[in-house]
Automatic annotation (TrEMBL):
It comes from Ferrimonas marina. It comes from the Bacteria. InterPro entries: Alkaline_phosphatase (IPR001952), Alkaline_phosphatase_AS (IPR018299), Alkaline_phosphatase_core_sf (IPR017850). SMART domains: alkPPc. The keyword Metal-binding applies. Keywords: Hydrolase, Magnesium, Metal-binding, Phosphoprotein, Signal, Zinc. This is Alkaline phosphatase. The keyword ATP-binding does not apply.
């Protein structure tokens, strides 16, 4: 009775004061933020990962880590005359809450610098890090750290990673990824400047595992890292995420960490479903590591989304009611890896090469198409003629559909876990994700 009376009094008071909500829960305490971006990871990639794990149709389907943490969807369009964004405009939106043009890195439509959540974190005394399987200065991580008119300004972006100052501090305590070529190790080069700033340095995945204090950097390949399934360490991003969390853990004022599964996008551009499933497995494992960190550190908020979808991936093609991840998994390498092997030994038939890397049976006409593609590429026609022909055979035999070699405008999923996760529920614009995160991170 008392409770009901109290509630009705409260309702009356709320009505009188014009307050629209009875929710008086204090803002959640968010000490650390882990923001994970699957580049190009449209909804179909997440579905593909689920059925890839299940295998044969009819088997028990377990929710993936993405399914478990799903809370909403986001629109991704840029601020120009197309609904289809690139990674730079989307990274800028996700990092700052400001929509910009395709190619923009941390700048608005007037090419003026925007304030990103990583900058905000820095100003608040938080530790900061970026992890990516692309070059660390590629468009998505760059959108959080740098401010340049074009994503192609790789050298200037790298320079800003090293020398841009916020509140008298450099932008980053930690960078892990590829891109050695942009941080030269010669005298006076950016790598040497970072060493002078006290950065521990690693140049391979193995050296990375030995980093033991901040500031630290690991640049493990000349450009982007090799595709997950083309290496001995297909779970490289989860190792990198583990190391980042180990180094950032226990900071008084908390940390902001951005982790990108960069190459889901590259597999999408190549229309290579085997490549995409490998990158999704690695990214999923990295998300599982981040979720485990939140379980141990409940003042940490984990948000996961994509910047856009790539390739127009869909699961089902040619009028068949079928999609066969088991067929995809009969191939053990990316199409580009297999194509390189076929080009390196042109005297061997493509059929013989194929057997080195795949158990999938190809038809005579598919083998002929691949042989012909190899001849055309050797004759100078295109850089991807052969790998595209291989990707097409794998797609056709698994009923995988692709609509484009570019990006698409479909909405992307939003996953969140930890304090404030409920704020990301439902439909939102990608800029809203940034605004909510910046609000939750405000000190
Ligand atoms: Zn892309």
């Amino acid at each position: 009775m008392f409770k009901r009376l109290a509630l009705s009094t409260l309702v009356a008071a709320a009505a009188l004061s014009g307050c629209s909500s009875l929710n008086t829960t204090p803002a959640p305490k968010v000490n650390n933020v882990i923001f994970m971006i699957g580049d190009g990871m449209g909804p179909a990639f997440i579905t593909a990962h689920r059925y890839d794990r299940a295998g044969e149709p009819g088997r028990q389907v377990e929710p993936t880590i993405f399914d478990q943490l799903l809370v909403g969807m986001a629109a991704t369009h840029p601020a120009e005359d197309t609904w289809v964004t690139d990674s730079a405009a989307s990274a800028t939106a996700l990092a700052s809450g400001v929509k910009s043009y395709n190619g923009a890195v941390g700048v608005d439509t007037d090419k003026l610098p925007v304030r990103t959540m990583l900058e905000q974190a820095r100003k608040a005394g938080m530790h900061t890090g970026v992890v990516a399987t692309s070059e660390v200065n590629h468009a998505t991580p760059a959108g959080f750290v740098a401010n340049v008119a074009s994503r192609r300004m790789y050298e200037i972006i790298a320079e800003q990673y090293v020398n841009k100052r916020i509140a008298d501090q450099s932008m980053l305590d930690l960078m892990i990824g590829g891109g050695q070529r942009y941080f030269p190790r010669e005298e006076g080069g950016l790598a040497e400047q970072l060493a002078e700033q006290g950065f521990q340095q690693a140049w391979s995945l193995e050296e990375m595992t030995k980093l033991d204090a901040l500031p630290a950097m690991a640049l493990m390949s000349d450009r982007g890292m090799p595709f997950a399934i083309d290496t001995d360490t297909p779970k490289r991003l989860s190792l990198m995420t583990d190391k980042a969390l180990e180094l950032l853990d226990g900071q008084d004022k908390g940390f902001f960490l951005m982790v990108e599964g960069s190459q889901i996008d590259w597999c999408g551009h190549a229309n290579d479903i085997r490549c995409a499933l490998g990158e999704m497995q690695d990214f999923a494992k990295a998300v599982e590591r981040a979720k485990a960190y939140v379980d141990d550190n409940p003042d940490t908020l984990l948000v996961i989304t994509a910047d856009h979808s790539t390739g127009g991936l869909t699961l089902g093609s040619q009028g068949e009611y079928a999609w066969l991840p088991t067929a995809v998994n009969q191939v053990s390498r990316t199409s580009s890896y297999i194509a390189e092997a076929m080009l390196a030994e042109p005297e061997r038939s493509v059929a013989s090469h194929w057997q080195d890397h795949a158990k999938m049976t190809l038809s005579e006409s598919q083998l002929a198409a691949i042989e012909e593609a190899r001849e055309r590429q050797v004759a100078g026609e295109g850089r991807y003629t052969l790998s595209n022909a291989i990707s097409k055979a794998v797609a056709d035999n698994s009923y995988t559909g692709w609509t484009t070699s570019g990006h698409t405008a479909v909405d992307v999923t939003v996953m969140a876990y930890g304090p404030g996760a409920e704020q990301f529920a439902g439909y939102q614009d990608n800029t809203d994700i940034a605004k909510k995160l910046m609000g939750l991170m405000a000190r």
